Amino acid sequence: MAAKTKVARLESELERARGEANWSKAFELATQLSNRSPGFETLTKFLMGEKQLEEYSAVSKTDDQSIAKAKEDLSEVENHLKEAIKGFHLRPELKKEAQLLLAKAYFVMAEYKKTLDCLGDLGLDTLSVQNVSTRMLKIIAEAFAIKGMCLEKLPPPTATTPLKQQEHNERIVGYYEKAGDLAIVHLQEMDKGLTQAVPSSSGSYSGSWSSTSQNGIGTILETALQKSPILYISQGKLNRGIGAFRELLTAVESRSTQSMRMTLARQLAEVLLRGVCDKTYMPPENVTGRKKLGENTLEPRRYVGSSRFRPQQRDEECLLLLIIAESLASKAAVLERSPEVQETKEHSFHNACAVYDLLTIVLVKKMQYLQLSQSLERALKFSFDEFHVWYQFALSLICAEKYPRALLVLEECAKIDPKNPLVPLMSARLCLDYMHTVDEGIEHAKQAANMGVQSYAARGHVALGIGYALKGNEVKLQTTRQELQRKALAAFNKAHLIDKNDHLALFHMALQEAILRQIPEALKHVQQALQLQTDHLHSLHLLALLLSAQKRDEEALDMINAALQEYPEDFSLLFTKSKLEEVCGSVEKALSTCKRLMLLWRDMFESTTESEQRGTGLLDRLTTDRRSLAQIQLSELSDRDSGRGSVHESMAASRVEQALSEVASSMNSSLMPKIGLHQSWTLQAQIWVHLGELYLGMDRVAEANACVTEAASILPMSHQVAYMKGKVYVHKKQYKEAKMCFESAISISPTHIKSLIGLGKLLAGQRHYTMAEKMLKDAVSIDPTSHQAWQELGKVLEAVGQFETASECLMTAVNLESASPVVPFSVIPRTFH
């Protein structure tokens, strides 16, 4: 009795070892059984064949050389399994397992006809899967997968009709689906630790043995799980394919299915992104999954319940799938750096990278850059030296306006790939366009220019020229400024020599020549730039300003109107159009353009600011934001008539205005603070200021005053608003109040040219010539191209008796005025696009 108990215990341990794929232990237990009873010798041969087959198939490949080697290596396995089939006549369950394993051996040897004959003799289609061990469940699942693969690899029957071909294809998919269902049930049972699958009345399974197997299901079943939805899609049955993916993903998860779930989630997200549009998308509850073929299968346990989240939009489902895949990819990442796991590490990285690329597509479409940067940051732990992930992380940080950190990440990118010219070029753009650290941007631009790659070297010199030009705007010393301007022009010229087809080099060269008042040369180069890129916005705008500098105002207005046909929502073009219409004598048309500006602002920004006041979610605000269509540049939101246009100084003034406005609104309840994006409100205030100037030019002081009051309610401490208040007071002959307004504007923005000229002119009118001279000399020093500043300085010097110097100043003013555009050239931003 004790001996029988010992044998039963060994048999139980043997089945457990087989279920765990612990072949060495299984073979050892079989040897012990064979020693105790000669009747177990066949079992030993069976286990020897099973062990050799499973270990070989786990590492085997499918190329011709491997197949030839498999036929040689698996001949012994074939003999062992054939002997086991003959010897298991008294144990039918083990005989079935041996025959199924023999079919698998034939499949590994690419003997597909023999495989199908072997499975046909066994009657696989009618083989019962109820109450079988987990090991047998996996073997049967593999058999269904193998049968489907064999039918797919062998040529279909000759002279087949389209209907029969369709039935043949559905039969193949059906085998894959059965294999997938059984494989998931097997994994769920292994996760629960059962040796036998005993369904209860509720369809669930119960047991007491805890499995420790982490071996997964193998490549055959992994392939089968992914095959059925892919075959549906390849046959044109997109909805059935999507339904098959969804059914697989709703199965209750086990520890061994995480890698498979990640792959399926990524594949379904890719199918939805590539093959389904928003209008044809059907939510999960409305899509019919696969067609069931027969009852010879077990249904996996699935997640059920009314509390489950069901996406209603395509992007919602894609995002959900990719977040799940990203979480699983992060968990499955290999962090070791030893050579032994290098291949596994590369495999896990490429799987994760595919997920992150798709996640980038979805989140960028929704403008969720911060969420994307957080996801990519999690990927860095297993992407230490992977340039692609680090560079994507840097770009996401730039889009999320995390500029200092983005620059640090770009520095890491440069260490990973020091020969990539994109990195220093992007760093230069980041420094010059966003962070306004000009010296650092110049250094990065030099690196890009010296890389040696022709197209990137040209753009490197463009960036270098932009850096020199911006630095020239910030320096006070005239000789230093002129030297930097010459360097900028030389850099743009070098960029053009390197790449004569780069319109951007020609545009910046023309802009720099225009600022230096070399109008004919600038006109020539901007026309060349437009020949290369006919729809370049800033070149079109520059051409219009150059025509106005030649006093061809009607032609300039025609050019602006033509540009507005291409860019009807560009604020800067509309501002210039209004100014040209005023110069051409069509003041009513200029007022109409201002009305168009206000309506455009309302269409673009009112919904955004209202949603912020209501506390609407970030996704709703961002997906309806049309600010990119307006192509607003920071310099365009600063004073358009400052002449010099230093981005650094305009940003500083903007920040001072914002801070002072907030303080003023908190101290005075009558000044209603405007909640929302500061730049959008600054733009609206600028429209009111421009409208006030038009009314003031028409001597309609009351309307001008109303416009200034409206602007002041938006930005109560803006230097532009303070300047306009001063102009209104001058028209009212209230000089004391006007002087206070001009002084307030200068205290907020010391480089505001118009306020300096206005104060200087006012002081001269009050015979305070010394102070007036100082103000106007400051204005000339800040912007030597301002003919108004030179003219007023000449008048002051004439009043104090310095006639020779006054004459020179007035002649300079005349020369500058003859080449001055309707608005300063500085309204055109120095951009990289």
UniProtKB/TrEMBL annotation:
This is Tetratricopeptide repeat protein 7B isoform X1. Keywords: TPR repeat. PROSITE patterns: TPR (PS50005). Belongs to the YPP1 family. It comes from Lingula anatina. Involved in endocytosis. PANTHER family: TETRATRICOPEPTIDE REPEAT DOMAIN 7, ISOFORM A, TETRATRICOPEPTIDE REPEAT PROTEIN, TPR. The gene is LOC106152476. Residues 1-376 form the Tetratricopeptide repeat protein 7 N-terminal domain. One of its GO terms (cellular component) is plasma membrane.
